[in-house]
Amino acid sequence: MLPTPLRYATLATVALGAIVSFGSIQGMRLAFVAEEIDVSAGETPFFNKLTPNPEAYAAAQRAQGVAIRNSIESMRWPRIAVLFGLSAATALVFVSALRLRWPSGIQRSGLAMLLSRAAVGAAVFRTLDGAQELVMVRAAVAAYEKALKEHHVELGEAEATMTIFSAGSVMTTMVVIGLFLLASNYFRSERIQQTFELIDRNTPEEE
């Protein structure tokens, strides 16, 4: 049985790998069908109805959708390649962390090193993914603000909101990268390796 802190760290890494892997697969699917993205505003959102010029904000949202679609289309294959690498690396993180909990006869110390390397790979691909996302966000922000200006709307709060949106994208990327690097350093640390080696010697059979 794994020590409680190590068990929690393993389960947290399983969750991290699963969430990011699922997101990357969804991103790949979107890149394959980018031209089919619906950019129509449809019904004016409730928030926009409260503004002095709801039509302008609806047009800005349409422009934002078009910008995102065009950005994805313009880098379709590089984006698919990055997301494929990210999904593969995070899937390996997920499987390795899961097998650390239930090794089925595999040496945990070896699994921990595999997980560490996979987490580094995931951090690299998530960095590239974040750079591509930032391109899309900047295009969306520029299109949104341009549409509002064309309707003679003062940017004010909208500009601040778009700035926060851009900063949020960067912060999300940094947090996820940080978590993968933290997992990598944790599972390859000498103390954790020694713990797994001790567990491997004392519990050779499947739990």
Provide keyphrases for this structure.
207 residues; mainly alpha; 0% strand
Order of helices and strands: HHHHHHH
- Helix percent reads over 70%
User: Helix count, per DSSP?
Assistant: 7
Number of domains: 1
Strand content: under 5%
Rg, rounded, reads 22 Å
Mean pLDDT: 86
Structural class: mainly alpha
Silhouette = elongated
Low-confidence stretches: none
Cα(first) to Cα(last) distance is 7 Å
Largest beta-sheet details: none
Number of strands: 0
Structure in words:
With 207 residues, the chain is an all-alpha fold. The chain has one domain. 82% of the residues lie in helices and 0% in strands. The protein is built from seven helices and no strands. The chain has helices at 4-32, 46-49, 54-74, 76-101, 108-150, 156-188, 190-202.
